[in-house]
Specification:
This protein is α/β, with parallel strands linked by helices. It folds into 2 domains: 4-20 and 95-417, Metal-dependent hydrolases (TIM Barrel, Alpha-Beta Barrel); 35-94 and 419-457, Urease, subunit C, domain 1, CATH 2.30.40. The chain has 16 helices and 18 strands. It has helices at residues 4-11, 112-115, 118-130, 145-154, 193-204, 229-241, 253-261, 278-287, 296-299, 308-311, 314-317, 322-328, 331-339, 346-362, 382-393, 398-413, and strands spanning 37-45, 54-62, 65-71, 84-85, 90-93, 95-100, 133-138, 162-165, 170-172, 188-190, 211-214, 246-249, 266-267, 290-292, 367-368, 429-432, 446-451, 454-455. The strands form 4 sheets. Strands 1, 2, 3, 4, 5, 16, 17 and 18 form an 8-stranded mixed sheet that branches. Strand 17 and strand 18 form a beta hairpin. Helix 5 (193-204) packs parallel to helix 6 (229-241) and helix 7 (253-261) runs parallel beside helix 8. It is globular.
């Protein structure tokens, strides 16, 4: 088996644009672009606010921030700057994925204690950027190194995707996902409210961007150890005292009701056991609980039954870890997939998730964008583009989806300088060769990506 660094190097040997990326930048490599200017013109602007696109638009970014955006007829490029003509292109904010697991696996086995290295994290963040995902929230499986990497980005203008993190998540004693085959030894395992509050205080010293709780028994496999509501409520209460948001992995409707009533800030997955009801909707709206749907979490357990379309799709194979690609070619792996005792349940779970997302959106519940990418079988960066299509299949419009993946996700993070293309904000940009509002599959037609005005290689 290849070492994690080796597999990630191979995975990135061909990027979304079909070119080998430059070596990872050093921690202080932003100085050479500190005075750079980006001037773009002639494109159609989809600014992330949900309004009508602006044709023949222009944009200027200096030192990574937007100093002008509007009609090209009003463009006054800085002295000496040359505008890049993007006629026929479409520019929108970079996508923000609110649920990933950075460097958690080697494509075959989950073990962030082994794979969460600086090299692997940087490789994942470059991969996300290449696919137009300019910010990610890593949800509960990170190693202590993440605080250094995140804080270094805050001092620089990053050239890869921005990382936000929950650090270590929380679960019950010997509960999912601390079981063998998932991530034993990573989450805090809590057994009483006082202990739970103490662990939150310990985590808070690192200023996490969100606190993550797992409340699930994996189809009843861990029913005896699932995080009880009194412990989840203790975590939520202590986090809120420290001005920290809390997101929870959920599956069951009744768990969702208890968590929303306790003031949870977001569901990191959909309710999937049954339809959401008026009681849950009322609780979510009363307490401001967001929905992060992660529909790809529920499509990937069964969609690889016929792997040929994926194996013949360069957009997939350039993102997928080599070890996972090898698995998809193995008859034994495919047989084991179908032999999963929960195999027959997966399609229904996805349909429940889609219907519930649509009902929550129609009811006025706030919602963001996520994938749960990074564990074996959930290909980083690629899944963001799959999630766009699944949200469309759930009944959302392309504009609703784009706003969710940009402006709304930035608002959930509390990041006022991200999510829309407006004067004063960071120039995190996704340039497409075709209109995503006409067909969301056009999100794959990536012409260029910018993070803080730095063009991604």
């Amino acid at each position: 088996m290849m070492r994690p660094a080796a597999f990630l190097t191979l995975a990135l040997a061909a990027t979304a644009c079909g070119q080998a990326p430059a070596p990872p930048p050093a921690a202080s490599a932003a100085s050479d672009t500190s005075a750079s200017t980006v001037v773009l013109s002639g494109f159609t602007l989809i600014d992330g606010n949900g309004g009508a696109p602006l044709p023949n638009a222009a944009l200027v970014a200096q030192d990574g921030r937007i100093t002008f955006v509007g009609p090209a007829s009003e463009l006054k490029a800085p002295a000496g700057a040359t505008a890049q003509d993007l006629s026929g292109k479409f520019v929108l904010p970079g996508l923000i994925d609110l649920h990933v697991h950075v460097a958690e696996s080697d494509g075959a086995v989950q073990d962030p204690r082994r794979t969460f290295t600086r090299e692997n994290v940087q490789a994942d963040l470059r991969l996300y950027a290449n696919y137009g995902v300019t910010s990610v929230l890593s949800m509960g499986s990170d190693q202590p190194l993440v605080w250094d990497i995140r804080d270094e980005q805050h001092r620089e203008r990053p050239k890869v995707a921005r990382i936000f993190t929950a650090g270590r998540g929380f679960t019950g004693l010997e509960a999912f996902p601390t079981n063998q085959g998932n991530i034993p030894g990573i989450p805090y395992e809590v057994s009483d409210p006082k202990q739970a509050a103490g662990f939150v205080d310990e985590l808070a010293a690192h200023h996490p961007d969100v606190v993550k709780i797992w409340v699930d028994d994996r189809f009843g496999d861990f029913a005896k150890t699932k995080t009880p509501i009194n412990l989840a409520a203790a975590i939520i209460d202590e986090a809120h005292k420290l001005n920290l948001k809390v997101a929870a992995h959920v599956f069951y409707l009744e768990d969702a009701k208890g968590l929303a009533a306790a003031g949870l800030n977001a569901f990191a997955h959909s309710v999937r056991d049954k339809p959401v009801d008026d009681e849950l909707i009322g609780l979510m709206k009363k307490h401001g609980t967001w929905q992060i749907a992660t529909l790809t979490r529920d499509s990937t357990p069964f969609e690889f039954e016929h792997p040929e379309p994926f194996l013949n799709d360069p957009f997939f194979t350039k993102a997928a870890p080599p070890l996972f690609l090898e698995r998809l070619k193995s008859p034994e792996y495919l047989k084991a997939m179908v032999a999963d005792k929960h195999w027959s349940q997966y399609p229904g779970v996805l349909e429940n998730a889609k219907r519930n997302l649509k009902r929550l959106v129609d009811a006025g519940v706030r919602y963001g964008f996520g994938t749960d990418a990074g564990v074996p079988g959930r290909v980083p960066a690629y899944l963001a583009h799959e999630e766009l299509l699944l949200m469309r299949d759930a009944g959302l419009t392309p504009m609703q989806i784009i706003v969710a993946a940009t402006k709304s996700s930035a608002e959930f993070l509390g990041e006022r300088d991200l999510g829309t293309i407006e004067k004063g904000k960071w120039a995190d940009l996704l340039v497409l060769g075709a209109d995503p509002l006409a067909d969301l599959k056009n999100s794959r037609k990536i012409d260029a990506v910018y993070v803080a005005g730095n063009k991604v290689n």
